[in-house]
Specification:
CATH topology: TIM Barrel
Helix content: 40-55%
Largest sheet: 8 strands, parallel, barrel
Radius of gyration: 18 Å
Distance between the termini: 20 Å
Shape: globular
CATH class: Alpha Beta
Structural class: alpha/beta
C-alpha cells in the first residue's frame, strides 16, 4: 500500500507533459478514451483507477456535434465529479481547422475555451491544410497552450474515416501509403512547431461518425511499423494513433514498442454504450458495458494494467 500511495502522489503532482515523455521513453502506452456521451465519464475514470492504469479522457468536436457530449464545458464539469489526477487527465481531442465536411472551423475560439476551462492538453488538427499552413496554425496553438504549461498534440498526414462517403478499400490505402505521414515533413513540422505530440497516419483509420456506417464494425487495420520507426527517429516525440479501435493486436503492440505512446479509442466504447442503452434503456447498464470494454482492452489487448505505478516509479528517478 505504501508504494501505491507514494506513486499516486508522484503522478498527481507530475505534469502531463512529463508523464507522456516518460511513457514515450519507456514504451508505455497511455490510452485515451473518447467521451461520446456524458455518462461515459464515470466508467472511464473508475476502471482506469481500478486497474491502476494511467490514461486520458478526451472529447472531440464530433463527440459534441454528432453524439451526446454536449459541450467542452459539460464534459469538464462531469469530469470534475470523478477526477483522479493520479490516473487520469482531460484532453481536448481533434479541433480541426477544416472539418470532415470540408467546412472551416473557428479553431482559435475552441482551443482558447478548453484552455480557459483547464483542460490538461489540447489538439489542433491542421492535417487538411498544406504543410506550411499547418505549421503556422500549430505554432499559434503551441504558443497559446505553452503559456499555460499545457502540452499540444498536432496531426500530420490523413487519417481517413471521418469524411463523407465510404472509406476507400483498406488494402488499397495500406499498399499505396495514401495519406501516410511523410517522414521528412514530420521532421520539419516538429522542428518548426515544437508540438509536444504528433498524431500520424501509418495505416490507422477512424471509425465512421455519421450515417448507417457509424454502427458498423470497423475494418481490421494494421500499422506500417517500418514507416513509424522512421518518423520517430527524426521527431523524437510521443506518437499518437487516432482510430485506435480495431487495429490488429500484434500490430498495436509492435507500434507501442516503436514509439506509439497515445492511442485514441472511440468507436469501440461508443458502440458498447449505445448498444447496451438501446437494448436495456438503462444508463447504468450502458456504463457497465463501457467498463467491460475498457477492462478487456487494458488487461487483454494492451496488457497495461498497473502502468500508473510503473510511471510513478520512473518519474521518481
Amino acid at each position: 500500500m505504501y508504494h501505491k500511495e507514494k506513486f499516486e502522489k508522484i503522478l498527481f503532482k507530475s505534469s502531463l507533459a512529463n508523464i507522456m515523455r516518460k511513457a514515450f521513453e519507456a514504451h508505455i502506452l497511455v490510452p485515451a478514451f473518447n467521451v461520446a456521451y456524458l455518462p461515459m465519464v464515470k466508467p472511464i475514470v473508475e476502471v482506469l483507477t481500478e486497474l491502476r492504469c494511467f490514461g486520458l479522457l478526451e472529447v472531440a468536436l464530433p463527440d459534441i456535434e454528432k453524439f451526446g457530449a454536449q459541450s467542452f464545458s459539460a464534459v469538464k464539469q462531469e469530469y470534475g465529479k470523478y477526477e483522479n489526477k493520479a490516473y487520469t487527465r482531460l484532453h481536448l481531442d481533434h479541433v480541426p481547422v477544416i472539418d470532415e465536411d470540408g467546412d472551416l472551423v473557428d479553431w482559435n475560439v475552441l482551443i482558447q475555451e478548453a484552455l480557459d476551462l483547464g483542460y490538461d492538453s489540447v489538439m489542433i488538427d491542421g492535417s487538411r491544410l498544406g504543410l506550411e499552413e499547418n505549421i503556422e496554425v500549430t505554432k499559434k496553438v503551441v504558443k497559446l497552450a505553452h503559456a499555460k504549461n499545457v502540452p499540444v498534440e498536432a496531426e500530420l498526414g490523413a487519417v481517413y474515416g471521418h469524411e463523407k462517403g465510404p472509406l476507400p478499400p483498406y488494402e488499397e490505402l495500406f499498399r499505396s501509403g495514401k495519406g501516410f505521414t511523410d517522414v521528412e515533413e514530420a521532421k520539419i513540422f516538429v522542428e518548426k512547431t515544437r508540438t509536444d505530440w504528433l498524431s500520424v497516419a501509418i495505416g490507422n483509420v477512424h471509425g465512421a461518425i455519421s450515417g448507417a456506417a457509424k454502427d458498423e464494425k470497423k475494418v481490421n487495420a494494421r500499422l506500417n511499423i517500418e514507416h513509424l520507426a522512421k518518423i520517430v527517429s527524426v521527431t523524437n516525440v510521443p506518437i499518437v494513433l487516432h482510430g485506435g479501435s480495431g487495429i490488429e493486436k500484434e500490430s498495436v503492440l509492435a507500434g507501442i514498442r516503436n514509439g506509439v505512446t497515445k492511442i485514441n479509442i472511440g468507436t469501440a466504447i461508443r458502440q458498447a454504450y449505445e448498444k447496451e442503452l438501446w437494448k436495456t434503456g438503462r444508463v447504468e447498464s450502458a456504463q457497465n458495458a463501457v467498463k467491460e470494454e475498457i477492462r478487456q482492452l487494458i488487461v487483454n489487448y494492451y496488457g497495461i494494467r498497473g502502468s500508473a505505478e510503473i510511471l510513478g516509479a520512473l518519474l521518481e528517478k
